[in-house]
Design a protein that fits this description.
nine-stranded antiparallel β-sheet, disordered C terminus, transmembrane helix, Beta-lactam-related
C-alpha cells in the first residue's frame, strides 16, 4: 500500500510541474501585452509565438476599428505589412541566386537594364548609401522612369552605414519583375502566397471588396484614425496580411528542413558565411550570451509591424498593432530578450572612469533626420559610427547592432558593448563620448538567469524531496538484502532515479528559463535517460513474470511506474524535446 501511495504521489507531482511550466512564458507574454496595450493606449494588437514549426500561441486584444467597435480577429483582421515586405523580396532574390540569375556582389547594371553601380548585396543590407527621403514616392509614374529620373544622390561614399531608402525598395521591386519576367504581384502570389496557402495576403489597391471590412484602421499617436491613403506606384505600401497568414511564411523560413536555399541552410547549421540570415533578410542582430536575436520593425501610416526570430532555438514572434507607437515594439523586444537570456548589472556606488576622450559628435547631414544624434568612435582599428536611439539604446550603424542602456547611476548614460567594454555618453553640449576599456569592465559583476518559481513548482519539488528522503532511509534499512536478487530494491532504485531526474529537470528548467538559454551537459540527456529507465522497467517486469517473483500487487506497481514514465515522456514530446 505504501508503494502504491508513493507512485501515486509521483504521478500527481509531475503533471503539476507540467502545468507550471506551460504557464511560465506564455502567461507572462499575455500579461505583458495586456499591460502595454493599456500603457500606450493601443487600439488593437495581435501577436503570435512560433516554435519548432508550430504556432504555440496567438494573442488578440482590442479593436481593429474603434469607431465601429470591431474586435481583432487573428484569422481575418488585415494589418499593413510595411517594411516586412522586404522579407518577401529577400526570399525571391535568394531564389534568383540559387537559379544562377544574379550575383550578390556585382553591380546590378551587369544583369539588368538599370545603369546602377550598387550591388544586390547593398540592396539586401540597406547599404547603398542613398538619400532616404521620399522624393517622388507619391507621384503617378512608371517604376522604371522613377528609378532613372529620381535617382538620389549618395550621402556618403562608404557602403558601411545601414540606412534603408525608398529608392532601394523601388529598385528591388523592379529587379524582381525584370529578372523573373512577370508582374511583381503575380510573382509574389505564384512563388510565396499560393505555395504557402496565404489566402488572406493582398497587395491590391484598393483592397478587394469582400475583405475591406476586415482591414484594420491605422491610428496616429493621439488615436486619430488615418483612413485616407495615397495611391503609390510602388507595391511596397500596399501589402496587407493577417497574422495567421504571416505565420505560415515565418514557419517556412524558420524550418531548415523545408528550406531550399543553401545560404540559409548554412546559417541554421551555424556555418555563417558572408550571406548570413541577418544580411539576406535585412534583419537587425542582437547577440547576448551566445544567443542571436534577429528582428525587424516598421511603423508607418498608423500601423506597426514587427518580426523577431531566434533561429538557434527555432523560435519566432510576429507582432502587429494599429498605431504609430514604435516604443511598444522596443519594449516587446526587451521583454523577449529578458525572458530568453537575462543579464542584470549589480548596483555600483562609484564608477572609476578613464579620462581620455576618444569620440566626437558626427553630423551626417542626413535630410529630414537632423534631430538624430550620431557619434563617431575611434578606438584604434575599431572605427565605428554610433547612433543614439530612443529609450536609451545605442546602435553601431556599420555593425547593425543595438546595445542596452546600463543604469549604473543617476547622472550619466552608459551602454554595454558585448560585456567587454562600456561606452559613456557625456555632456551632449560638448558632443563628446568616453570609452571605458576592458579593465573597467572587470570591476563590474554580472549575474544571469533569475529563477521563476511558482507555487505549483515549489510544492511539487517539496514532495519530491520528501520522497527521496523516504527512499534513502528505506535503502539503509534494506542494506542487509543487498546481495539478494531483491526486486523491491530494484523497484525503489528506479523510483529514486526518476525523482532525481524530475527534480534536476525542474531546477535546470527554471535556471535556463524555458530551455532557451541552452541546456548543456547532463541535463540535455534527461529525455533519453527516461526512455532507458522505461525500457528497464519493461525488462524487469517481463523477468519478474517469468520467474513468478511478482504478485498481482507487484504487477500493479510496475504498471503505475510505467504510466509515470509515459507521463514524463509525453511531456518531452509535447514540448518537442524528443
Amino acid at each position: 500500500m505504501k508503494k502504491i501511495l508513493l507512485l501515486f504521489l509521483i504521478i500527481l507531482v509531475f503533471p503539476v510541474l507540467i502545468f507550471s511550466f506551460k504557464d511560465s512564458f506564455e502567461y507572462r507574454l499575455g500579461a505583458f501585452l495586456k499591460n502595454k496595450i493599456n500603457e500606450y493606449n493601443v487600439p488593437g494588437l495581435v501577436c503570435s509565438y512560433v516554435r519548432n514549426g508550430k504556432v504555440k500561441d496567438t494573442y488578440s486584444y482590442g479593436f481593429s476599428n474603434l469607431e465601429s467597435n470591431i474586435k481583432i480577429n487573428s484569422e481575418e483582421t488585415l494589418f499593413k505589412l510595411n517594411d516586412l515586405t522586404e522579407i518577401f523580396n529577400s526570399y525571391l532574390f535568394l531564389k534568383l541566386k540559387e537559379d544562377g540569375k544574379v550575383d550578390l556582389n556585382i553591380p546590378i547594371k551587369d544583369y539588368s537594364d538599370i545603369n546602377n553601380e550598387v550591388s544586390l548585396f547593398n540592396l539586401l543590407t540597406h547599404t547603398t548609401g542613398y538619400d532616404f527621403s521620399k522624393i517622388g514616392i507619391d507621384k503617378k509614374i512608371n517604376l522604371k522612369n522613377f528609378l532613372i529620373e529620381y535617382k538620389p544622390k549618395k550621402l556618403y561614399s562608404s557602403s558601411k552605414f545601414v540606412l534603408p531608402t525608398f529608392y532601394d525598395k523601388a529598385l528591388s521591386e523592379y529587379l524582381i519583375s525584370y529578372l523573373m519576367k512577370e508582374n511583381y504581384i503575380q510573382i509574389l502570389n505564384k512563388e510565396i502566397f499560393s505555395k504557402l496557402n496565404m489566402e488572406n495576403t493582398f497587395y491590391d489597391y484598393p483592397l478587394p471588396l469582400y475583405v475591406r471590412a476586415n482591414k484594420a484602421i491605422g491610428y496616429d499617436r493621439n488615436n486619430k484614425s488615418l483612413i485616407n491613403e495615397k495611391n503609390s506606384f510602388m507595391y511596397f505600401n500596399k501589402g496587407y496580411t493577417t497574422i495567421n497568414d504571416f505565420n505560415k511564411f515565418l514557419i517556412e523560413i524558420l524550418n531548415p528542413k523545408k528550406l531550399k536555399f543553401d545560404i540559409i541552410k548554412n546559417f541554421f547549421s551555424e556555418k555563417i558565411n558572408e550571406y548570413s540570415f541577418v544580411r539576406t533578410f535585412a534583419l537587425n542582430e542582437r547577440k547576448i550570451n551566445e544567443i542571436k536575436f534577429y528582428y525587424l520593425n516598421s511603423s508607418s501610416k498608423g500601423f506597426s509591424s514587427s518580426l523577431i526570430v531566434i533561429p538557434s532555438k527555432n523560435i519566432g514572434f510576429s507582432l502587429f498593432y494599429n498605431k504609430n507607437m514604435p516604443e511598444l515594439y522596443d519594449d516587446f523586444l526587451d521583454f523577449i530578450v529578458e525572458n530568453f537570456v537575462y543579464l542584470k548589472p549589480v548596483e555600483i556606488k562609484k564608477m572609476p572612469f578613464e579620462n581620455d576622450i576618444i569620440g566626437t559628435y558626427l553630423n551626417l547631414n542626413i535630410p529630414n533626420k537632423t534631430s538624430e544624434k550620431f557619434y563617431y568612435l575611434n578606438n584604434g582599428n575599431n572605427k565605428v559610427v554610433l547612433k543614439k536611439l530612443r529609450d536609451n539604446k545605442l546602435r553601431i550603424l556599420n555593425q547593425n547592432k543595438v546595445y542596452d542602456y546600463l543604469s549604473l547611476d543617476n547622472n550619466n548614460t552608459f551602454f554595454n558593448l558585448d560585456k567587454k567594454s562600456i561606452i559613456k555618453i557625456s555632456n551632449e553640449k560638448n558632443s563628446k563620448i568616453l570609452y571605458l576599456k576592458d579593465k573597467i569592465y572587470k570591476k563590474l559583476k554580472w549575474y544571469e538567469n533569475p529563477d521563476y518559481y511558482n507555487f505549483g513548482t515549489l510544492i511539487g519539488e517539496i514532495i519530491l524531496i520528501l520522497i527521496l528522503i523516504f527512499l534513502i532511509f528505506k535503502y539503509i534499512k534494506n542494506l542487509k538484502h543487498i546481495n539478494e536478487l531483491n526486486f523491491e530494491i530494484i523497484f525503489d532504485s528506479i523510483i529514486f532515479i526518476e525523482c532525481i531526474f524530475i527534480l534536476f529537470f525542474t531546477v535546470e528548467f527554471f535556471k535556463t528559463n524555458y530551455f532557451v538559454s541552452g541546456l548543456n551537459g547532463f541535463a540535455s540527456l534527461i529525455p533519453f535517460l527516461v526512455l532507458i529507465i522505461s525500457f528497464f522497467q519493461f525488462v524487469f517486469t517481463i523477468i519478474s513474470l517469468k520467474k513468478n517473483y511478482l504478485t498481482f500487487m507487484g504487477i500493479i506497481l510496475y504498471i503505475l511506474s510505467t504510466v509515470d514514465s509515459l507521463i514524463f515522456i509525453s511531456f518531452f514530446k509535447y514540448y518537442n524535446f524528443l
